[in-house]
Amino acid sequence: EVKQTVNSKDLERKLIGYFPEWAYNSEAQGYFKVTDLQWDSLTHIQYSFAMVDQATNKIKLGDKHAALEEEFKNYNLSYKGKKVELDPNLPYKGHFNLLQTMKKQYPDVNLLISVGGWAGSRGFYTMLDTDEGINTFADSCVDFIRKYDFDGVDIDFEYPSSTSQSGNPADFDLSEPRRAKLNERYNILMKTLREKIDAASKKDNKDYILSAAVTASPWVLGGVKDNSYAKYLDFLSVMSYDYHGGWNEYVENLAGIYPDPKDRETASQIMPTLCMDWAYRYYRGVLPPEKILMGIPYYTRGWENVQGGQNGLHGSSRTPASGKYNIWGDDLDNDGKLEPAGANPLWHVLNLMEKDKNLKVYWDDVEKVPYVWQNQERVFLSFENERSIDERLNYIKNKNLGGALIWVMNGDYGLNPNYEEGSSDINKGKYTFGDTLTKRLSNGLTNMGACSKTPEDSNNSLEPINVSVDFGGSYDHPNYTYDIKVKNYTGKEIKGGWEISFDLPKSALYKSSWGG
Fold first, then answer.
1. GH18 domain: which residues (predicted)?
2. Does some domain include residue 358?
């Protein structure tokens, strides 16, 4: 059995950034390339995304051309003013070649291949059906990181939960018939990956990494009864964003740090759950804090036609923001247009503010995050800035967290060297992608030093007793009624008078206002 341990490497603060494979040929994405990554600030780079091949159960590239074949002939590849060229000695080109070229300058940056994502999790459902499928996938992951010289694998399966219709609606034909078994099979997958990655580490004399990006949604987590997968991870990254968005009418923050009783979506709950603090308390019952990372969004979500609220916050709207307030819209509709979501890189919002003095930043002193409000157009956008980054650093330090995960790196901002005053080109504004927030995070994490080793997780003086506890009865998420059955394997009588208690964070006890 693989046992959870904490070593000195676990105690190092981590700053992990997602690289979006598709950004290099997208105007709205800033034509962002591997050479534009914040290499001198990040400790880990997660390449998004690979997928699970439904035909073979093996890991496969999301865009083979971008990863291995693109020659970037029409691109200016440079880093800090110095020209960067593809390494002709590598048997592949594309982003993977640039990753290895840049890693020669930054050998301490770990490269992980991230598998899944919102649009790339479909293959997980069928792969998990059989042990053979799981073994095939795990073996292929080891082959992949060896072949392309990655340092590990990150699993971003959205979502291994029994909660009905959690995950991408495009996957419901595969996900819904399998819901009851997903949590159990996911645990087997992670155990198998850990064993095979450890075997490869021993053989290659290299410490390969296994991590996972996990949901922060209490609705989704209501269908995850067994978190034993976590003990197989080097670290766990909480996707503590997308708490609110245009999928419903509640105008609230995208990624609040602390709970707010005024959050209209959770106002009827015993405790507000849509915030990082709730997610931390949930996962703290699973892992020591030094293995937990806070997710930070470098993008916005928002609404237009907002009614009520304080400068829009806690207001209501059934109209997600569109047009200039939505250059990173979630999906394309049937006409090939971006569906309204109020999704934008942070730098684009700063450019909008340069042109519109009625678009202003406000501060939520409860959840400790900023938001942007245009009173005439009644537009609300979530936001991140230096002040919220400082609040996140304080939280990481106070909770002894392992660091932070950023989605996504081309959303950070800096001054644009190609600025053209008055230009309507979205990439010619005063701001473009940069390293303002990333550098602030990096400096803050460096200054706070390594994590402390959590005493109670390393020195449990209680003698274990060989019993098992099982739950029966009805299961109707999110309201549970259980029959508890205890099996005694000690060979001795357990006399009456004993009580069973569970080390469960209060934050996990909630009554949902949305009925799911």
1. 13-444
2. no
Domains held by the chain: number: 2
**Model pLDDT for residues 133-168, shown as the tens digit of each residue:** 999 999 999 999 999 999 999 999 999 999 999 999
**Tens of pLDDT, residues 248-266:** 999 999 999 999 999 999 9
**Are residues 129 and 236 both part of a single domain?**
yes
Distances 304 to 3, 179, 422 between C-alpha atoms, Å: 50, 35, 25
The DSSP symbol for 463 reads P
Helix 386-399 / helix 436-448 crossing angle, nearest 10 deg: 30
- E strands, 73-135, where? 78-79, 82-83, 110-116
**In this structure, are 30 and 78 located in the same domain?**
yes
* Positions of the chain with pLDDT lower than 50, given as ranges: 1-3, 474-481, 506-516
Collapsing DSSP states into helix, strand and coil, what is residue 112?
strand
Angle, helices 131-147 vs 179-204, to 10°: value is 40
392 Cβ contact list (under 8 Å, min separation 6): 257, 294, 296, 404, 441
Domain of residue 491, residue span: 467-508
Cβ density class 43-65: b for 16+ within 10 Å, e for less: bbbbbbbbbbbeeebbbbbbbee
Q: Are the beta carbons of 101 and 95 closer than 8 angstroms?
A: no
Q: Would 318 be classed as within a structural domain?
A: no
